[in-house]
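Handout, page 2. Input:
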Amino acid sequence: MTILATTAAGSLGAILLIWIGYPIAVWGLALVIRRPIRPDYERARSRRVSVVLATREHAAIIEARVSNLLDTEHPSSLIDVIVALDAEGARATRESLGHLDPRVHAVGGDAPGGKAATLNAGVRAAAGDVLIMADSAQRFDRRTIPELVACLEDERFAAVSGALSLGDRGGRSPVHAYWRMEKWLRYNESLLHSSIGVTGAVYATRRTAWPVIPPGTLLDDVFVPMSLVLAGHRVGFT
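Output:
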């Protein structure tokens, strides 16, 4: 076998190990070692929640998203929304959001801008015991926030990711197939100990556990959960 053929065979083996071997190993171990989340829905209803919406969208899109976030089964007196605006153009957008619900507060993101710096500014302004991270484009079910908060009543977990749905259009496409596998894998990882990543558009953390994200970080939805795991916490999936 030539060096080229050996290299190709080794590369193919590594790909198969990652894409097939690892998921099978995780699934098999999760069948034996199951440590699922133990949500407490009753206690969760007493938690103060801050939703952090990091965005650079214009006012109309933000208003529609905020309206959706406040349409939740969590007690309305115990929820607020922090609209954290990317540093670029934040002032103009803040002025156009002045008429929103009194539970909504707009803050400017930190310099030099970007999502990591904007999230940090939003978290500093939050008063809730639980932080829910959200993006502009998606919509929450009315049970999304109560479900995430209830899962964090399990003190073993410092963060819990929700399950993002891509919708029904093109449901048989490779992208949909990949995302179904990804969610299945994250669920099984969380049964063992922790999901490696969270979905940036729908996850919750305890405010006291939040790690300040270095400016310029591209994958905040990997940095945050891995920081929590290294600090001795678990990261779940629901």
